[in-house]
Predict the 3D structure of the following.
Amino acid sequence: MTPPPTPAGPVPVPGNAAPRHARPSRWAGRVRAVALAGLAVACLGAGSVGAAALADGTDAPVATPAPDPVAAAPSPTPTPEPTPTCTPAPLEQRAAATLVVGLPGVRTAADPLAQEVVGLGVGGVFLSESNVGTATQVAALSAGLRTAAGRPLLVSTDEESGRVALMRDVVGEGPSPRRMAQRETPEAVRARAAETGAALAGVGVDLDLAPVLDLDDGPAGGVIGDRSFSADPATAADYGLAYAAGLADAGVTPTMKHFPGHGRSTVDSHETSSLVTATVDELAATDLLPFQRAIDAGAPVIMLNHLQYAALDPDRPASLSPRAYALLRDMGFEGVAITDSVGMGAVNLRWDFPVAAVEAVGAGADAVLTTDGRHAAAMRDALVDAVRTGRLPEERLSEAAARVTALAGGDPVAMSCLDVELPAVSRF
C-alpha cells in the first residue's frame, strides 16, 4: 500500500529469465506510429488495445470526455463462453471473489465483520496493525477465517520491511529497502525475506503486498522514499526480485508494486491524485524496467497505483485505466492485477467504493483492494448490477474471479468455467 553506495553488480536470482531489453524501444516505436485520434479503445484484442495503451499524450490530445472504461474494458486474454457441461458459480459469488478486503479492528474470526465478509465469499482478506496482537492470535484469526469461509481464502498483509511493516509485531523490525540495497547483497536480502516469509506463513499469511519496485532516491521520508531499493532500474530490479524470491522460498506470494511506477510523484495518493507527465519513452527507459524484469521472472501479482499518467490516461488513475492494464498485459503479464486500496483519496474522492470496484474490474483489474471490509457487500452488489445491466461484460468479471480463485489455491473452472494458469512463482 502507498502509505538505497551501489552493490557490486547484479546477482541474478536463480531461474530468472533474461530481461527483454529490446522491448521499451519497440513500445516507443509503436507509439510514434499510431495517432491517438485513430485509436479505438473499445477494441477488445490485446494487440490493438496494447497499442492504444501506449499512446503518448504529446502526439495528439486525448479526447474528452474520456471513454467509459467499463464499456471500453480491454480483454487481453479472450475467454470462452461457458459450455453446457460447465455451469459457473452464481454471479454474486464471482463478484465477491474479486474483492480483497480489510477488517478494521478485528482480532478474532468470530467478529461480526469477519463473519460478514467471509460469508459474502470475498477472494481474500487484508490484515493490518489493528488485527495484530500476538503471533498466536494472528494465526488463530487466519485459521478461523479460512474455516468460516470453507474454501481457499487469500490472507494478505503489507510487509515491506522498514516503515511499512504491518506485521512487525510478528516478524520483528527490519531495515528499509533502501538500506538493504546499500548494505547487503541480493543473496542476503533473499535470505532476510525468506525469514520474513516464514514468519508470515507461520501465522497464516500467504500473500504479501511487497516488494516495492518504484524508483526513488529522494528524501527517505517521501511517499516512496526509502521504501524504494534504488533509483537505478537495474539495482531496484535485482533487489526487488531477491526480496520476492525470499518470500516465495517461504511459500508466501509476493506482489510487485506500484505499476507503472510511483517514484516520479511526490504526492501521497492516500490523500489526492497526481499527474505524471513523463513520456512513454521516459517510462520505458526507467520506471517500467523493474516491472519488465519481474514479469519475465514470473511475477504472480502486480499492484497498480492511483497516479494519473499523461502518456496513458491523464484523467484516470492507473488503477482504473484500461490503458494501464493493457500496457501491463502487453508487457507479457499473465498473473493477477490488483489495485491499491480504492479507499485512498486519489480514488475515493471521485469514485465511491461500489463505483470504484466496477470501474477497476471493467478497466482490467482482477482483484480490488480495500482496507475497509464494511464496504464489501455494496461493492459486490455493484459488480453484479453492472453485469446485469450490461455495463460490465460478464466474461471480464469471470476472468477476474478465475484468476483470484486460482491465486488462492481454488478451482478456477468451478468458479468461472475458465482454466486459468498463473505464472509459476518458482521461476524466481
